[in-house]
Design a protein that fits this description.
mainly alpha; single chain; 137 residues; 4 helices
Length: 137
């Protein structure tokens, strides 16, 4: 992937994560607007924001990563926010019996998806790099 295309994807992904952060927090605060425990609201806010913080941190650390791994990261930075917003919006419009359950479950699922996708991609990139190093030129 050309570096200009990768830079554009990175910029778009960062904007998506910012939108996902603001939207997810807003939806969580709306759903919990009747909760009088400030501590619980703060803890839930940190929990809901944790996948987005991890994606931003990964983007900051990704400079030395392979192009394939960075590309996967940037796609995850598009998928996770929009998926989270879709699930949270649906839960807010059609509240389940325990509305907070959605806000408890989505972050670890996001973490798991991100960890699996990046691990597999990094493994494939290393494997591809090693096999190209071993091939005589």
């Amino acid at each position: 992937m050309a570096s200009k295309t990768l830079a554009t994807l990175r910029r778009t992904a960062l904007i998506a994560v910012l939108a996902g952060t603001v939207g997810s927090l807003s939806l969580m605060l709306w759903m919990g607007r009747h909760n009088h425990s400030r501590l619980l609201v703060v803890l839930m806010s940190l929990w809901v924001l944790s996948p987005f913080s991890a994606l931003i941190l990964a983007a900051a650390l990704a400079e030395g990563w392979s192009t394939l791994t960075r590309t996967m990261l940037y796609w995850l930075m598009l998928i996770v926010p929009f998926s989270s917003l879709a699930v949270y919006s649906y839960a807010d419009l059609n509240p389940p019996a325990k509305p907070a359950s959605v806000y408890v479950v989505v972050p670890p699922v996001s973490w798991l998806l991100t960890a699996m996708a990046l691990s597999i991609t990094a493994w494939r990139a290393r494997k591809s790099s090693r096999s190209s190093d071993e091939t005589p030129h």
